[in-house]
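User: I'm new to structure prediction. If I give you an amino acid sequence, what do you actually give back? Let's try with this one:
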Amino acid sequence: MLGRAAQIATGTLRRFSPSEAQVLVVSGMAVGAGAAVAGITFRELLDGCIYLFSEVLGPVLSRVLGSPGLALLPALGGLVVGLLTYLWARGARGPGVPEVIDAVARRGGRMPVRLTVVRVLCAAISIGSGGSMGRHGPTARFGALLGSLFGRFLKMSDERTRTLVGCGAAGGIAATFNAPIAGVFYALEVILGEFTTRAFGVVVIASVTAAAIGRGMFGDAPAFTVPPYELLHPSEFALYALLGIFGGIVGVALTRIIYGFQDAFYALPLPDYLRPALGGLLLGVLGFFLPQILGIGYPVIDQALGEGLGLRLLAVLIVAKIVAVALTLGSGGAGGVFAPALFVGGLLGTAFGLAAQALLPGLTAPPGAYALVGMGAVFAGTVRAPITAVLIMFELTGTYAIILPLMAAVVISTQVSEAMSADTIYTLKLRRKGIDVRSGRDVDLLKTIEVGKAMTQEVPLAASDVTLREASEHLNHSRSQVLVVIDEEGALFGMVTEQDVRAGLLDEKGELTLAEIATRDVLSVYPDENLNEAIHRMGIRDLGQLPVVERSDRGQVVGMLRRGDIFHAYSAQMLEQAEQNSKD
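Assistant: Good question. You get back a string of structure tokens that encode the predicted 3D arrangement of the chain. For your 584 residues, that looks like this:
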């Protein structure tokens, strides 16, 4: 009786026990809600900092020093940021998103709590005091931290924790920018760096949850109001393609200038906590003459979309904004690069549209249409997240009118950026610290495994002078579908399939030798090459196996690498990595 009761109880518990997938979905929903709250909190904190510097400290400085005293506001903010960073986040500088990428790629999603919180606070102070940055980076970072903490609190595996980090980043973007679709693909393209079915579903749940909360707080209106644009003539695609090229060039230039300024600032014989103050002072002087470059800059983008800026002023503001971003971020300030990329891209597109309109009157769309495309192009050239670039422009503007030109320009910009630089604005920061996050991705994990460690040493070999009848017996004995043909010195001669042998026997050519029918143009791999290279080589001809030959003049066959060997080696490496992470 007791045994029967125990069986019933166990069966009941199993029926009501959630599966791994259900736990992950519920966790994603919780992280999305938490990320929304975090994003809203950061936005309110930023508004508080803007009020403090512009409405409280600004009037005081203006009364004491006159209007030039306002130039000191970014310097004061920089001093606070420098002290906070020096005391509690020493060594932190530049964009914050690379730390999230590094945590996902190499640390199982584990993010440092104190450093992240301090730098998010620094971002609010930097932007609030006039720093020329955006809020998307800190928002995504704050949400990602919540995902990391949630995964660690529930003692989830590294894989699940990484997914929840992506959920947090997506939720932060979705809630504060009313961009749930772009938030999903930002997490997949930039943070996680991979597209998997499970990750996609959970990130979508998190993003939708966060967007619902964000819309309840901020409403459902798009960030920018734009008139309906349309493609006037198919020949305009050439102009949009050219704008895409310019967007890629500007995106790479923005990245290089930021890190160039950083090198210059940190070469100065100054304490680290004074560098952001110096950068803020220089920014304040520049902003005194061009106040449009201070802060996030969305009102200026609205002006560009509404064609309220002249060509000469546009050119000046583009250069000044790039310098302002470099001064803020290069000196040690904090913030995101999303808004600056939109600012520069929007103004670049407007200037391009005005020039096109002057050269081809009546044949081009209004400059505002080029502004939208320019925003996406520069963002794509800076971050290289083309899907995100297209979707974020749709969600920020609420219009699909120029989706085709936008897609074309974004793809071209991404290609130009890749041709000019091996890194994005995020990966360059990590590479400069000696970190290659790509080695932490699944596909690049294969780069750490040598062919010699994965190959099978038992190879179905046959000499080149073996007849087809003998080869048939050999195939039956080895139960293999292919024979590796070698010469008298044991070097690779070619390959023969079971189908080749049977076809020869059916044609009563059993006395032919393998040398006469073997395929000579055979792809092979060396033992010291990695599995990523081997997979690429297999894909060239859709092969299931490759002979492994010595890297020498003789080129003797030493093994065979099959797809199954790669899978087993990869699985073993993943298991070893998981065990190492659990020990850490």
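You can read the tokens as a compact description of the fold. Here is one thing that stands out. The mean pLDDT is 86.
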